[in-house]
């Protein structure tokens, strides 16, 4: 039986993948007793939004541009400790586990969870429980475990530069911005983009990002 609340539990979704964030927002808004106050795509914007909004819970992606989820979570727990934070990410390792324990994060859920599991996690966190749902085997939490995306990178023979460019594209950077950040020419970045499309047999960069998210690269 689902609990009832005297007033809606207010949630902010912070994730830089719009399609995923939109889906999470729909799930939350369809969950009795919950409503989404705002959806943001980077940590810097989240901190600005918190100057005018007071959520009960933040669903926070770990890998975001400008200010990542770990830095953002640390700032929130320091300045607004009453806000509950649930990390929602494809990535989990020993360092994240340690960060969660040291900073009083209220939960971690893997992006592959079902809508029901997400709703259950929200109810539990509101009730004062800590929630942990990871699809990774226990041995992958060890420090020496393969990094997420390793198999994907190897299978498609992606270079380190190509991987870095994929991550920057996923973060919303333009070709010019990538060229500036990587100290490359515009044409060189365009060449890398074409090679990435060819190697992944993707029609466009949206498909590249979808592959990268699916296999834990970003």
What does this structure look like?
- It is a single chain.
- The chain has 218 residues and is of the alpha/beta class.
- The chain is built from ten helices and six strands, in the order βαβαβαβαβαβααααα.
- Helix 5 links the parallel strand 5 and strand 6 (131-133).
- The protein is elongated and about 55 Å long.
- The protein starts with 8 loop residues before the first strand and ends with a helix.
- The model is unreliable at 137-148 (pLDDT under 50).
What is the secondary structure topology, with strand pairs?
Blueprint lengths: L8 E6 L3 H12 L4 E7 L2 H7 L7 E4 L8 H11 L4 E6 L4 H10 L3 E4 L4 H12 L4 E3 L16 H6 L4 H11 L4 H8 L3 H15 L4 H10 L4
Parallel strand pairs: 1-2, 1-3, 3-4, 4-5, 5-6
> Helix proportion of residues, in percent?
40-55%
Q: Any idea of the CATH topology of the largest domain?
A: Rossmann fold
CATH architecture name of the largest domain: 3-Layer(aba) Sandwich
> Order of strands across the widest beta sheet?
2-1-3-4-5-6
Give the class-level CATH name of the largest domain: Alpha Beta
**What is the approximate shape?**
elongated
**Rg result:** 18 Å
SS element count, helices: 10
Mean pLDDT across every amino acid position: 84
Unreliable spans: 137-148
Strand content: 5-15%
* Main pleated-sheet profile: 6 strands, parallel
Number of domains: 2
- Tell me the distance between the termini: 36 Å
- Helix-strand string: EHEHEHEHEHEHHHHH
The CATH homologous superfamily of the largest domain is called Response regulator
Helix/strand-derived category reads alpha/beta
Number of strands: 6
